[in-house]
Design brief:
- GO terms for molecular function: hydrolase activity, hydrolyzing O-glycosyl compounds.
- InterPro entries: Glyco_hydro_43, Glyco_hydro_beta-prop_sf, Glycosyl_Hydrlase_43_Enz.
- It holds the Pfam family Glyco_hydro_43.
- This is Glycosyl hydrolase.
- By secondary structure, the chain is mainly beta.
- The radius of gyration is 18 Å and the shape is globular.
- The two termini are about 35 Å apart.
Amino acid sequence: MVDYHVFSMDSISGPVTDHGVVLTLSDVPWASKQLWAPDAATKDGKYYLYLPARDHDGIFRIGVAVAEKPEGPFTAQKSFIAGSYSIDPASFVDDDGKAYLYFGGIWGGQLQCWSKDAGEWVFDASKTGPQEPSGENEIALFPRVAQLTDDMLEFETPVQELVILDQDGVSPIKADDHERRFFEAPWMHKYNGTYYFSYSTGDTHYIVYATGESPFGPFRYRGRILEPVLGWTTHHSIVEFGGRWWIFYHDCELSKGVSHLRSVKVREIGYDDQGDIYLVD
C-alpha cells in the first residue's frame, strides 16, 4: 500500500465513514516501500498508528505516527522503532497503563530471517521468501513482544519471543503443525483478567487463540475462532464495543477469491464458563 485511510462507525450495523488518507508512504522518512497492515492505540489523549514498511535496505521495520485525533492527520517519527522488525504490529494497553507491541509474520514478513546471536537479533537475508522450520521435532517460530515506553514511541524492554504451548501447557507448538502454529496477524486482548493471544495460521487460514496470565506469556493453545475463510490472510482484531465482543476480519468473498481484493467482515463472539471463545449465531 502507499497510504492509509481511517474509517469509523457509530454502531456495528450503522454506516461507515471514510475519513480519507491520514498517512502516505512519502510521509514516512525511513520507509522505502510497502506499507502493510497497521494498528492503532490511544493513551493519554493521543493516538498512535503503528505501521510496518520496508526500510531503505529492504528490511521490514515497524514505525509509529502520532495524531491528536483518531481520524488524524498522523505525523510519522523520523526513524523506525529501534529493535523492531517484521510485520503486523498489534498494540495492547493493559489496565495498569503499560503498553505492549506484538508483531511478526513469516514468509513475506521476514520473521524467519531473524535469530539471536550473542544476545542480539540478527537478520539473515538468505532466509527470505516462503521459508520456515520443518521437521517432526522442530519448534515453530514464535511471534515477538516488547513493552513500550510511556510515550508509546520506543521499546522499553528487549524484544522477546512469545511462547505458544500445546494444550498440555508444556510442549511448544511444533513447526509442522500448520493448523495451530503461528504464521502472522498477532492480536492481544484481555477478558476477565486473562490474556487472549490470537493469530492467523496463514496457509491453513484459521484464526486461533491461546491464553496466558501475563502479557509476555507463555500462552497455552485453546482452539479456533474462525474456520478457513476465502483468501489470505484473515487478519483480524477483537474488541469490546457497546458492551459486546466482536471479531473484525477480512476475506475475499466479494472478489470471488482474488486474494489482494479483501473486504472487512465482523462477527460477534462470546465466552463460555471456561473462558473459551465461541461465535454468536
